[in-house]
Design brief:
Helix content: 10-25%
CATH superfamily of the largest domain: Trypsin-like serine proteases
CATH topology of the largest domain: Thrombin, subunit H
Strand order of the largest sheet: 18-19-20-23-22-21
Number of domains: 2
Shape: globular
CATH class of the largest domain: Mainly Beta
Number of strands: 23
Structural class: alpha+beta
Distance between the termini: 25 Å
Amino acid sequence: MRRGRLHRALVAALVLLGAGTAAGTAPAWASASSPAGAPAASAPRAEDASLSPGLLRAMRRDLGLTAPRARARLAAERTAAAQEPKAREAAGAAYGGSWFDARAQRLTVAVTPDASASAVRAVRATGALVRTVAHSARQLDAAKSRLDRLSAPRGVSGWHVDPAAGTVVVDVVRDRRSDNDVERFLSRARAAGPVTVHQVAAAARTYAAGTVGGDPYYTGNVRCSIGFSVYGGFVTAGHCGQPGAGVSGWDHSYVGTFQGSSFPDNDYAWVSVGSGWWTVPVVLGWGTVPDQLVRGSAEAPVGASVCRSGSTTHWHCGTVLARNETVNYSQGAVHQLTRASVCAEPGDSGGSFISGDQAQGVTSGGWGNCSSGGETWFQPVNEILGRYGLTLHTA
């Protein structure tokens, strides 16, 4: 989308704040809960300032929801996000994971058979549904950690805990399923704990792109998208640049420098800004929706709707599919990513994922495209804030 010079000068500041929501399906998928030391997530506001006609149209296009159903779902998801930490605490050691049930429009919390009656009552008192599962979240996380220590062949795309299924799901590229090295990996994976094999169409890849024009930022001949503004700069994907690398904006003027970057293992980075650039709590809507204000970073549960903005494919929506997923990119495995049913393409890397007005993460990678469909992984924003001691710029 082209803009007039004056409008683009204003948008340049918005982009720094997190105006590229999702940037291409990159190497890492899974997500994880915010690590210890991460800044506390801001609670969702009672009113939803993001329910613009454009957002409702995007949810109809990507999720098949009418405007009334989209409004009801967003309200239910805000409630679920607030209930989740309380329900997790109430379940204690019997906690088996949680997710948003789109049909019931409620949070579902899994507990193990040894959960006490008082714990179950406490979970239900939060308003969540309760389901009994065989394995606790701690047991499933331990099994996944054992897989994380294995070396995976390229035919294995990644793995994550699925609390609803009660297993660790290993994604295998369909046409590599019978490869000997894949079979050996699966044999070792099954020995590590409860495992289910899921076949996918293609391996994950990153979505940085060569300099082909369009918004927002460039590092050398690589174009990526800004994630979210923090005080002093913005966060983005680690595979977009190394510490010390200079960054230029949409007009190729100097913006700032990569101050920290990690990839693989993680896929996050932060860029300091200067030279007349500044940050604002906004995600670019690309004309599909109005530019979105960022009011916090409360983590949306699995099953909740999420939208992203990126410099190549602009604004698209989907749902959160999995957290804490390990993705096996060609450059190496990336851990603790979140997977979403949202498409992306090269140049979208580093862009913002947002749920309502709550920042979720920055685009890492994925598979597919926005013509035929695909899935994308993002690095949770609270983990990035905690790692670098940053503060999200909010409205």
